[in-house]
Design a protein that fits this description.
Chain lengths: 245, 396
């Protein structure tokens, strides 16, 4: 039985448990409830949340709480209280501020607010929420890199245009990239557009994983163009290798 | 009142715990599932060293015969990190594999964008585990996030039969078994385990080198019971990783108040919201270290930490000229330098941003001569005399 089947009736907007009252009134409560249930349906959810002492230890160690209007305690509280209004507000406004460092795991109740945020992000992405699209601006090139090459960071990403705040070293690296990469003793690192040399067979296996687990479907709503591009790349390579989807 | 610079403070009491608070040892479930035919366990090869982890338990760390699971950020942007890990292995005469049959764990992207799912993440992990298993070599994980994520994936796989079934189905399509290693071992645990062997080959005196240690969040916060805690280091109150190595090499570890804070990496922030990463790294970490402990170097043990703490300093200095910078390197680079590694041909310090020259001078290294040697070697590549440099070229 899914957790949502036994869900308690959500608190009404006039319930004093609401800290801020209902927000995003243009979004029906049923939709907010659906998204909340989707997070709660993840089988990791019961191990991430066990109630909240409201002690604030998580906030005290949270880097994002120091620089954003973000609180892992409020994340845990909203979920525990099944406050779907606040929960939705957090999906729109808060979750992309989290640093995912998991400092909040020092919770004496055994909660994992950072883990709850991960699940909320997954649901936000899967449902193509505007907050997810906004958060991904400028980031989709990274998704392209990791899904298509099997490594996330490429040496040739280092450029003065991309990292002007990292100082003159970046310029020196960019100017000498090919030579400095070939000067690295391990032959696996003689690459400029990928972190290390990944075998062709290995890459195909990764594509099969994406195919079998629906990992590409995750970005279908988020970025249809990127989704189509990645589908084409992987389909071509897998077809050439004789893999039947 | 700030703490005065000086040796690290003793803890008030050794770490103790109530039995009811101790999480279950995952090994019991792992071997039970193996007996039931649900998965294959790759055993830690002998010889291994048993190191202390939290709650009085131990963990097996293989000495050699290891399959090096590389890190995206290390290989891509701070390659001297990876080369130093390999160089120390070679210096100790330990065999290893640097595989092409390895992908990223993809967890950096997952923590940044959530554009994945549990089955995909677990399948990527198990594919890499299976690739190592096929070679007979045991995985040694270079990245702290890969290490933390793989511990999490192991937990999910052990707890959820549905996930195991899905991953088995995916692995069947690849012709691979569902393999989980007996231990998930981070390379810095290997450096902890081997620190006395490393110290035997030390050729540079580090007794004047003051160090601040930044323990990586994903190393000791995710699945916290599976991280090295040594009663001899901080009374076991915090992870002994990095600190024990620095002390074994004669460095002076200096404490600072924000040691538990993360570096500010943020996964997505370092790429697309860097104002946050920069502010946190410089204000909450570097400035606190410099004011409270005045180190010669910050030593840490993960990709994101080296990147964020190092690269963020340029903008802080540009904004505030009195901002005191400090070099940031990995424990692997620190150990390699102690053992006589070349600062550029091996440790590749020219990929780092904060000024490291005063540190090299204090270590007794003539960096101008070393840089000339590096330029001489790379000129051979520029002039087509060589296609690439090899390990033999590092022996200058």
């Amino acid at each position: 039985m899914s957790p949502s089947a036994t869900a308690a009736t959500p608190a009404l907007p006039e319930d004093p448990a609401f800290k801020l009252g209902p927000t995003y009134s243009e979004v029906p409560l049923a939709e907010k409830q659906r998204l909340f249930d989707a997070v709660r349906a993840d089988e990791r959810y019961p191990t991430y949340l066990h109630g909240c002492y409201e002690c604030g230890i998580c906030v005290g160690s949270c880097p994002s709480a120091r620089y954003y209007d973000f609180s892992p305690r409020r994340i845990a509280q909203a979920a525990t209280r099944e406050d779907v209004e606040l929960f939705y507000q957090q999906m729109v406004e808060d979750i992309w501020d989290c640093s995912q460092c998991f400092s909040c795991l020092r919770c004496p109740r055994g909660n994992n607010p950072g883990g709850v945020v991960t699940l909320m992000r997954e649901v936000a992405v899967n449902n193509g929420l505007d907050s997810a699209k906004q958060a991904m601006k400028g980031y989709t090139r990274i998704i392209y890199k990791i899904l298509s090459t099997g490594t996330q960071i490429a040496p040739d990403m280092l450029s003065a245009e991309a990292f002007p705040d990292w100082g003159p070293t970046v310029v020196q690296i960019a100017d000498n990239l090919d030579i400095w990469r070939r000067a690295l003793p391990p032959e696996t690192l003689h690459t400029t557009s990928i972190s290390w040399d990944v075998a062709e067979k290995t890459l195909l296996e990764l594509y099969i994983i994406w195919d079998k687990t629906g990992a590409l479907d995750v970005i279908a709503d988020l970025d249809p163009d990127l989704h189509e591009l990645l589908e084409e790349i992987m389909e071509d390579r897998l077809d050439e290798a004789g893999y039947e989807r | 009142m700030y703490h005065q610079p000086g040796p690290r403070r003793p803890n008030k009491a050794a770490f103790s715990w109530d039995d009811h608070y101790v999480p279950e040892d995952f090994h019991e479930q792992l071997f039970e599932l193996e007996r039931e035919g649900e998965l294959t366990v790759q055993r830690v090869p002998e010889p291994y060293i048993e190191v202390p982890v939290k709650y009085g338990r131990t963990k097996k760390v293989p000495v050699g015969h290891t399959w090096h699971h590389k890190s995206c950020g290390q290989c891509g942007h701070i390659p001297g990190y990876s080369t130093s890990i390999f160089w120390v292995h070679r210096k100790l005469g330990i065999d290893y594999v640097d595989p092409h049959d390895q992908t990223s764990c993809t967890a950096w992207n997952y923590y940044a964008s959530a554009t994945s799912n549990a089955a995909a993440q677990a399948s990527v992990a198990v594919r890499n585990f299976a690739a190592a298993y096929e070679t007979g070599y045991f995985p040694l994980i270079h990245c702290g996030t890969s290490f933390g994520h793989y511990k999490d994936v192991r937990k999910e796989l052990l707890e959820h039969a549905d996930l195991r079934a899905k991953v088995r189905e995916v692995m069947a399509a690849l012709g691979k078994p569902l393999v989980i290693p007996e231990e998930v071992v981070h390379y810095s645990e290997w450096f902890y385990a081997m620190r006395h062997e490393i110290a035997k080959l030390q050729v540079r005196d580090f007794s004047r080198i003051a160090v601040c240690v930044h323990p990586a969040c994903h190393y000791h916060k995710i699945v916290e019971a599976d991280a090295i805690y040594d009663p001899e280091i901080y009374g076991g109150q915090r992870t002994a990783i990095v600190t024990a190595l620095v002390e074994a090499l004669g460095g002076e570890v200096r404490d600072y108040s924000t040691w538990y804070d993360c570096c500010g990496f943020g996964f997505r922030h370092i790429l697309v919201n860097r104002d946050f990463s920069r502010s946190f790294a410089t204000q909450r970490k570097i400035e606190r270290m410099m004011i409270e402990a005045d180190p010669d170097v910050v030593v840490t043990h993960d990709t994101g930490c080296v990147t964020t703490l190092d690269k963020s300093q340029f903008a802080a200095k540009a904004l505030k000229p009195e901002f005191a910078t400090v070099p940031v390197i990995s424990d692997a680079q620190f150990a390699a330098l102690a053992m006589g590694a070349h600062p550029f041909l091996v440790c590749q310090l020219h990929w780092h941003a904060a000024d490291y020259h005063p540190l090299l001078e204090k270590m007794g290294i003539d960096w101008e001569r070393a840089w000339a040697q590096f330029e001489e070697a790379t000129d051979k590549l520029r002039h087509g005399e060589k296609e690439c440099l090899t390990w033999e070229d590092t022996n200058v």
